[in-house]
Specification:
With 91 residues, the protein is an alpha+beta fold. Helix content is 26%, strand content 38%. The chain has one domain. It is built from two helices and five strands, in the order αβββββα. It has a five-stranded antiparallel β-sheet, with helices on one face. It is elongated, with a radius of gyration of 15 Å.
Length: 91
């Protein structure tokens, strides 16, 4: 999974608004998931973006993106705002 620039920007802004400096958190990719690490914490927040393509009635491709949260991908959300809300509550 590629870490998209707009995802990076919005997570950075969220963490900085919550009172962290850029030196206090980092991002790491592991097994296809993106992990957010905060210095001094053992746990990480991780997510995976999954995009699936299907055909609509006019035989055009329609992409659907879902996000799987947690190391075991146990929570599924349908939009980026829900991912940000989960990061904020984890923080």
């Amino acid at each position: 999974m590629k870490f998209l620039p707009e995802e990076h920007k919005s997570i950075n802004e969220l963490l900085i608004e919550s009172g962290l400096n850029e030196e206090e958190f980092s991002f790491r990719k592991k097994r296809g998931q993106l992990h957010i690490e905060i210095k001094g914490r053992v746990d990480t927040f991780c997510f995976y973006r999954k995009t699936e393509s299907t055909f609509d009635a006019n035989m055009k491709f329609v992409d659907k993106t879902t996000y799987l949260l947690g190391s075991k991908k146990e929570v599924v959300v349908d939009n980026w705002e829900d991912v940000l809300a989960a990061v904020k509550s984890w923080r």
